[in-house]
Amino acid sequence: MQLRFAQRDLEALQDLQQAGQFIGGGPVSLFESDFASYCGVQHCVSCGNGLDALTIILRAERLLGNLPENARILVPAHTYIATFLSIVEAGMQPVPVDVNDLLLTSNSVHSHLGSIDGIVAVDIYGKLVGDAVYAFAKANHLPIYTDTAQSHGATTIAGEKSGSRGRASAFSFYPTKNLGAMGDAGAITCNDSDLAHTARQIANYGRSSRFVNDIKGMNSRMDSLQAAFLNNRLMFLDNDNKKRLKIAQVYMDQIANEKVHLPPPDFLDENAVHVFPVFVENREKFVAYLNSHGIQTNCHYPIAPHQQDAFKEFNQMSFPRTEYLHRTEVSLPCHPLLEDHEVQEIIIAINEYS
Fold it and tell me: What is the C-alpha to C-alpha distance for residues 50 and 82, in angstroms, rounded to an integer?
């Protein structure tokens, strides 16, 4: 997929070599400005990766007094482990809850009202968390942050873009994302100037100037080269997402196998379709079958965070819906360069699976 950008990327590399500035500089400033505008927010703060982005948000909020020390942060159990890790890295406590269908709901939040200090909503598979969750958080004066690592470009019916809906959002630009660099990179988007300023300080050693450090920070900066690569790709994101959505709609319409369960009927609403998931009880057999037909798949994700050895304190918890999703999920090819005949070959193979 990256080959279509080869010439632009080569030119960007040559420009950087001539400029001799490899951290910060023009490409980073340009990407931050353009991505903030794309998301419909005032601020974009670039950083090293998506995990850092969410960690920095939470640390900045603690410094600003918007979250207490050891804050209890509600988070869906159905997510990648990075979401849990960011909360821990920020010195806070994850409070995992089960999901309904795929995503966090206001009912899940309501059941923990009074025992949490904030919320991290996760746009899993690229689908935006529903408006009701944000409305409930606002009504109950709970700060809500969004893990937008999979929802680049997703838009609500009202026209709000991913990255604009919570107090702040954390993006990953890992190469396989809808908007992916050619290495690790991340960003924070928000409308709060104090939050953006503090996040930028944390990401750059806590510096206020070159040798003056006002707060304890970290080194999490986007390379100029990765910013240049992202600048080359941002202009194609909406069109790529439309192609993903078209492929996903064909899957929804034409996959018909009682052993292969499709996502909920509203899955394609407000969705960037980073992943098209199906759910199969005997996942290993299904994956092997598709492999034998030359069809590559992935799994998002084999083991839920609360079942990992890294989080033994949660191992005894039970989240039935989350555990079903992690046990059965298979991600089908859904990238924008798939040809129509390839999509049909995938569907035929799935419908013949027994």
Answer: 8
Assigned superfamily of 237-351? Aspartate Aminotransferase, domain 1 (3.90.1150.10)
The token duo for 105 is 């709901």
- What are the beta bridge partners of residue 109? none
Length of the chain: 354
**CATH number of this structure's domain 2-234:** 3.40.640.10
In degrees, rounded to 5, the angle at the alpha carbon of residue 134 between the alpha carbons of residues 313 and 202 is 65
CB-CB contact of 160 with 277 (8 Å): no
What's the whole-number mean pLDDT along residues 85-93? 98
CB 171 within 8 A of CB 184: no
Q: Where are the domains of the chain?
A: 2-234, 237-351
- CB within 8 Å of 142: residues ≥ 6 apart: 109, 116, 117, 118, 119
Strand partners, 91: none
181/225 Cα distance (integer angstroms): 9
CA angle 176, 39, 218 (to 5 degrees): 65
Task: Note the pLDDT tens digit of each residue in 213-233.
Answer: 999 999 999 999 999 999 999
Sign of CA dihedral 259, 260, 263, 264: negative
Are the C-beta atoms of 280 and 286 separated by less than 8 Å? yes
Of residues 100, 123, 130, 96, the one with CA closest to residue 112? 96
pTM of the model: 0.95
Which amino acid, 337?
L
